[in-house]
Amino acid sequence: MKVVGRERWAQIWKPMATILAVFLAFYYLPIGWPRFDNALVEALELTKWYAQEHVILCLLPAFYIAGAIAVFVSQGSVMRYLGAGANKVLSYSVASVSGTILAVCSCTVLPLFAGIYRMGAGLGPAMAFLYSGPAINVLAIVMTAAVLGPSLGVARAIGAIVFSIVIGLIMATLYRKEEQVKIKAQAMLPVPEVARPLWQNAVYFGALVGILVFANWGKPQEISGLWGTIYTAKWALTASFGLLLAFALWRWFGVLWWKVAAVTIVTAGVALFFANQPQVPFIVGLIGLTVLTSTAREEMGDWFDQSWSFAKQILPLLLIGVLISGFLLGRPGYEGLIPSAWVAAAVGGNSLLSNFVASFLGAFMYFATLTEVPIVQGLVGAGMGQGPALALLLAGPALSLPNMLVIRSIVGTQKTVVFVTLVIIFATLTGWVYGAWIVR
User: What does the DSSP assignment read for 131-182?
Assistant: First the structure.
């Protein structure tokens, strides 16, 4: 009888403890405490803002790009430039500077990272791309230099590139046995047949990336000069890349001309009717692309299936992570459960501890592209040191709690913990050294 009882408890104690914990959490829920109530509102507000500003314009195009990588980029090409056995100088150079053309945040880069990693990219180059993608887009670096000073802008650019390479090399070294197994497995793969010339695939991917980049082009401080001109014309540029994609789908990917024409005409008509709401025709275009691909067979159908696979894996984790991040830290300019005064006090001066706090908090906060600059500017005005400012700029854009949840689902818990730890350590040390150099 005792044995039976022990076996029964061995089976039920975990679910019973979970149920009890959830019950007690709701039983003692501190509703009515102003800070808790406000944190709940901030969690919902941040998630609402994220859904409105990033899911449609950022994530959905990124899912389609990731799906396209899985279907239309040969595994041999990925392995040649980013594979575990590729030339290290070439692979890490490509991975570390790729973010200069992608105006993506720590979440939007995830489908792209998942796509190249699943297609055979080595762990080191893939992690280098994961870090550098959100950290070094050109507009963010220029804005950092303009708002926070040239030295901080240059330090951020150099630090992001060097970090991505060093962290990638460390990850590859720590998991070299797995990488060796991957190299051997890749060597056994047959050479894939080429369905179309490289330049046609390049035009197709260029159209997809152009849509992603220009639809999310951030507003500069002044609507003048090159960046201001691009911002003013962002939707015209996005539409141009959309037309290029439509042409490629008809001419080279076998989509019937009348289907492409129907989607194009409907999208153009909606654009004229909603001239002041460019997101509406963008949504219509995405719906049209979804209909074209989801009802197709062979390559186009595979493209939808792969894109959908990334979306259902990544999107729920991101939304859960954004909810938690908003609850704890709030939106930019608003407080969550953790008072902003605590944050400002913890990152003052240039001690090793203040740099660590800035790196740690930056790693868990969610920053949309370019929003990190005004946030850091406000913290500097509240007493944040130059070193912690750099530490936050190096850790914040590349990581976030939602980002970590998704990385874990792709590479596993252990690799995710190692990656996050390396980012925080290097950001802390770099900020500390930079702060000491600035005040010398």
Answer: HHHHH--HHHHHHHHHHH-HHHHHHHHHHHHHHHHHHHHHHHHHTHHHHHHH
**DSSP code of residue 100:** G
**Residue 348, strand partner residues:** 384
Q: What angle do CA 64, 369, 412 make, to 5 degrees?
A: 60
Amino acid occupying residue 1: M
Q: Is 121 helix (H, G, I), strand (E, B) or coil?
A: strand
CB-based contact 400:325 (threshold 8 Å): yes
The string of pLDDT tens digits covering residues 274-327 is 989 999 999 999 999 999 999 988 889 999 998 998 888 888 877 887 788 788
pLDDT tens per residue across span 396-436: 877 888 889 889 998 999 999 999 999 999 999 999 988 88
CB 214 within 8 A of CB 238: yes
d(CA 176, CA 193): 30
Give the Cβ contact number of residue 208 at 10 Å. 21
In this structure, what token pair is assigned to residue 236?
């015209």
Q: At 83, phi and psi to the nearest 5?
A: -65, 165
pTM of full prediction above 0.70: yes
Residue-averaged pLDDT of the chain = 83
**CA dist 388 → 157, 334, 366, 404 (Å):** 16, 20, 17, 22
Which contacts qualify for 191-195: CB closer than 8 Å, 24 or more apart? Answer: 191/76, 192/74, 192/75, 192/76, 194/74, 195/72, 195/299
Nearest to 424 by CA among 401, 402, 394: 394
Helices (H), 34-122: 34-50, 60-72, 75-82, 88-97, 109-118
**88-104: per-residue pLDDT in tens?**
888 888 888 776 666 56
Provide CB contacts within 8 A for 59, sequence distance 6+. Answer: 107, 108, 111, 311, 314, 315, 318
Taking each helix axis as running N to C, give the angle between helix 401-411 and helix 109-118, from 0 to 180 degrees, rounded to the nearest 10: 10
Structure tokens at 89: 């100088």
Residue reference for tokens 């209909």 = 291
Among the residues of 365-412, which ranges form H helices? 372-381, 386-395, 401-411
**Whole-number pLDDT of residue 274:** 93
Length of the chain in terms of residues written = 440
CB 285 within 8 A of CB 277: no
